[in-house]
Amino acid sequence: MDSTTQDKLVKFVADNAPSPGELPMFIATGLIVAGPSIASHGPFFERLGRRIKNETDSAYVVLTSGESPNLKTFLKHFIKKTTSIIEDDDEYDTEMVMAPSKRGPKLLDFDLGHVQEWQKKNRVRNIVVAIQDSEAFDTQLLIEMVDLF
């Protein structure tokens, strides 16, 4: 059953990828509730992440409620985790947050523009965000996350 579920999730990600160089007109979204066995969530999301990375041109980020008490902190964690994936230049992450942009004013450390720049640089078609314990998230925070994405 686990394999079948992961097959369907990987297919969903692959089928909803924009063409190279194309900006998506919408964000494909799916909600999967992993069930009541919290002990199985970690391994499930790890296996799913490996498959998504290996079988699609996508980045995969797992977030938890413990590291996301509010929207600003959520964004900081999301940006840090996303921009540290497939990073060729170790200085890019700190440079991105600390140094002023060459094209304009410095982005704040919780600005999703960092993720857009990273995505263009690394030619990643999708960024899959997995919320490992969605039932523990504040409802208002989930609503704000969906609105931002």
What does this structure look like?
The structure is a single chain. By secondary structure, the protein is mostly helical. It has one domain. The chain is built from 6 helices and 2 strands, in the order ααβαααβα.
> How many DSSP helices?
6
Low-confidence stretches are 88-101
Distance between the termini: 30 Å
Largest sheet descriptor: 2 strands, parallel
What's the order of the H and E elements? HHEHHHEH
Residue share in helix? 40-55%
C-alpha-based Rg, rounded: 16 Å
Structural class: mainly alpha
- The count of β-strands is 2
From the structure above, extract its key features:
mainly alpha; 2 strands; 48% helix
Provide a quick synopsis of the model.
Helix content is 48%, strand content 8%.
How do the helices and strands line up, and which of them pair or pack?
Elements: H1 2-15, H2 38-55, E1 58-63, H3 71-83, H4 92-98, H5 113-122, E2 126-131, H6 139-148
Parallel strand pairs: 1-2
Helix pairs in contact: 1-2
